[in-house]
């Protein structure tokens, strides 16, 4: 049996559709995760200990919510979220049904990474910007975020890769995608060939995401 | 003019009040280079940051050009800060922005000039600090001295009246320190800028400052014109700084001089008297002999000075001392 005949029974059209579904889920949820997680991360940072807007109560509350969401296994979150998902997308099924739980699962994680990236910015930079008479908004937009950009791109990369594995679980709610294909055909129908193809595709996806992310980090590090 | 009226600052650490600055009165004249010297933890950094209210005072008033800085609201404070430049020990440049963008930042934040006007001002500033050809580089590509020059250009961008220097040369090697201090002196002269700098090196004070305040444990322990404080230090902390600068160990010196015969005096010359042939004249007229045990001839900012330690023997010693005292020389009898 040569290599080609091993893949003879693979339905490539199905693989193609699953790949598209994975891409839509990944980039759709990544977009919303960044849009929601970035401000949340900035807020966590600003309210944190010894920061510009030190607010012990707000920080403790935000921190608690973030921790709860992060400690919930994604597979459980998928199910718990169903009523809420129906409320905003009209369905709990398919790609559209997967994006809200993906975003809710990844946003707290991403926000923590953003907070950490902002903490890495030298306090002297904030002090220098303050001494120029900057408003808090200007300090964030003109100094903190540009300085933290390499760290934020690293955070987006890690989050994107985490989302790839989350999309695989989204098959539970009938979301489709490569992970779903691997479970339905590769695992439940013992089609090892489909399993191999999906795993290889996921591997390539992760590799591409990581190297693009690394390039962006290096580019914006300005070293 | 910058005036401190009974300004004090207390930090609350773990439920206890730690005084960082005891009630302090101080005034800095326009166009002056005012130095604050002290060891780390002496309160000089706190004092400097009170001027542009990066630190809020616990009490007292800080008056700058007739306005009470402590009474400013947030908006007023921001406009005031645009009139006060600041440079830092670790430069605090934005690594993500080019040299030109770093210098443009205060102007962009102020939002009063057009892009074109900002560009023109930035090239003028970079030319001023000698970095025109580095405009497109990132800070990581520059040496320490070049980074501080960018810091200075950035601090001058909004044409401030006051420049605050926070240990601006402490991270630099001696040669680079000299060139950065020279640049600060030039700026002070040409732009009539008031400079307040803090340092732990007497050499920095000696090179650029007009007046100096010595700080110890949250208090100003000695203050005056640099020449007075430097040549005739009173407080033990001041004496230690001067000795560190001259690399003199008093105990070692006392041991060295123990076997030298005669009286030992220290003469301090200042200004024109530094170059007068006083020693030879006095020796001829009074018949004393002298040997020079230690000495230094240098400058305090633009004023030459000399300080000689002599062993004097034979002749009419009292007459010789009277002649020294009569001349424009400060004499101190050590033994």
From TrEMBL, chain A:
Keywords: Cell membrane, Membrane, Transmembrane, Transmembrane helix, Transport. One of its GO terms (biological process) is D-methionine transmembrane transport. The chain crosses the membrane at residues 24-46, 58-82, 88-111, 151-174, 194-213. It comes from the Bacteria. Residues 19-213 form the ABC transmembrane type-1 domain. It is found in: Cell membrane. The keyword Protein transport does not apply. It is a multi-pass membrane protein. CDD domains: TM_PBP2 (cd06261). One of its GO terms (cellular component) is plasma membrane. Pfam families: BPD_transp_1. The keyword Manganese does not apply. NCBIfam families: PRK10782.1. Belongs to the binding-protein-dependent transport system permease family. CysTW subfamily. This is Metal ABC transporter permease. It comes from Pseudomonas alkylphenolica. The lineage of its organism: Bacteria, Pseudomonadati, Pseudomonadota, Gammaproteobacteria, Pseudomonadales.
TrEMBL record, chain B:
One of its GO terms (biological process) is amino acid transport. GO terms for molecular function: ATP binding; ATP hydrolysis activity. Its main location: membrane. One of its GO terms (cellular component) is plasma membrane. It is found in: Cell inner membrane. InterPro entries: AAA+_ATPase (IPR003593), ABC_transporter-like_ATP-bd (IPR003439), ABC_transporter-like_CS (IPR017871), ACT-like_dom_sf (IPR045865), MetN_ABC (IPR041701), MetN_ABC_transporter-like (IPR050086), NIL_domain (IPR018449), P-loop_NTPase (IPR027417). CDD domains: ABC_MetN_methionine_transporter (cd03258). The keyword Glycoprotein does not apply. Residues 2-242 form the ABC transporter domain. Pfam families: ABC_tran, NIL. It is a peripheral membrane protein. Signal peptide: none annotated. Part of the ABC transporter FtsEX involved in cellular division. Important for assembly or stability of the septal ring. Belongs to the ABC transporter superfamily. This is Cell division ATP-binding protein FtsE. It comes from Pseudomonas alkylphenolica.
């Amino acid at each position: 049996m040569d290599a080609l005949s091993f893949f003879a029974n693979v339905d490539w059209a199905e693989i193609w559709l699953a790949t598209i579904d994975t891409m839509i889920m990944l980039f759709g949820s990544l977009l919303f995760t960044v849009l929601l997680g970035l401000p949340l991360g900035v807020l966590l940072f600003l309210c944190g200990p010894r920061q510009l807007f030190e607010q012990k109560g707000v920080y403790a509350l935000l921190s608690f919510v973030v921790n709860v969401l992060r400690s919930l296994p994604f597979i459980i979150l998928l199910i718990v979220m169903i009523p809420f998902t129906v409320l905003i997308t009209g369905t709990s099924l398919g790609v559209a049904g997967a994006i809200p739980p993906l975003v809710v699962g990844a946003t707290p994680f991403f926000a923590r990474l953003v907070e950490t990236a902002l903490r890495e910015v030298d306090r002297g930079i904030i002090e220098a910007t303050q001494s120029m008479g900057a408003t808090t908004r200007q300090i964030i937009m003109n100094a903190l975020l540009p300085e933290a950009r390499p760290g934020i791109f690293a955070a987006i990369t890690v989050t994107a890769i985490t989302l790839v594995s989350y999309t695989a679980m989204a098959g539970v709610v009938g979301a489709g995608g490569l992970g779903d294909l691997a479970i339905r055909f590769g695992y439940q129908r013992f089609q090892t060939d489909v399993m191999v193809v999906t795993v290889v595709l996921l591997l390539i996806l992760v590799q591409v995401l990581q190297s693009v992310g690394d390039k962006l980090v290096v580019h914006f590090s300005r070293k | 003019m910058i005036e401190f009226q009974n300004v004090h600052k207390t930090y609350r650490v773990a439920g206890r009040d730690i005084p960082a600055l005891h009630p302090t009165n101080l005034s800095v004249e326009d166009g002056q280079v005012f130095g604050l010297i002290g060891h780390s933890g002496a309160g000089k950094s706190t004092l400097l940051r009170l001027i542009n209210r990066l630190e809020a005072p616990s009490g007292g008033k800080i008056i700058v050009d007739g306005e009470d800085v402590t009474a400013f609201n947030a908006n007023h404070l921001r406009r005031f800060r645009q009139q006060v430049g600041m440079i830092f020990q670790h430069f605090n440049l934005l690594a993500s922005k080019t040299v030109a963008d770093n210098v443009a930042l205060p102007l962009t934040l102020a939002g009063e000039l057009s892009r074109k006007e900002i560009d023109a001002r930035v090239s003028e500033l970079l030319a001023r600090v000698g970095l025109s050809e580095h405009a497109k580089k990132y800070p990581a590509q520059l040496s320490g001295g070049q980074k501080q020059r960018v810091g200075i250009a950035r601090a001058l961008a909004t044409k401030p009246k006051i420049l605050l220097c926070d240990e601006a040369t402490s991270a630099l090697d001696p040669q680079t320190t000299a060139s950065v201090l020279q640049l600060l002196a030039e700026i002070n002269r040409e732009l009539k800028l008031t400079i307040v700098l803090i340092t732990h090196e007497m050499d920095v004070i000696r090179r650029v400052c007009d007046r100096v305040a010595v700080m110890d444990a949250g208090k100003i322990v000695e203050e005056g014109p640099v020449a007075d404080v430097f040549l005739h230090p009173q407080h033990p902390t001041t004496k230690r700084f001067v000795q560190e600068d001259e690399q003199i160990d008093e105990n070692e010196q006392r041991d060295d001089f123990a076997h030298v015969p005669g009286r030992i005096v220290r003469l301090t010359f200042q200004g024109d008297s530094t170059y007068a042939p006083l020693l030879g004249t006095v020796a001829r007229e009074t018949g004393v002999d002298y040997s020079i045990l230690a000495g230094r001839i240098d400058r305090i900012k633009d004023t030459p000075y000399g300080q000689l330690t002599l062993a004097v023997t034979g002749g009419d010693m009292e007459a010789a001392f009277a002649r020294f005292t009569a001349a424009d020389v400060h004499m101190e009898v050590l033994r």
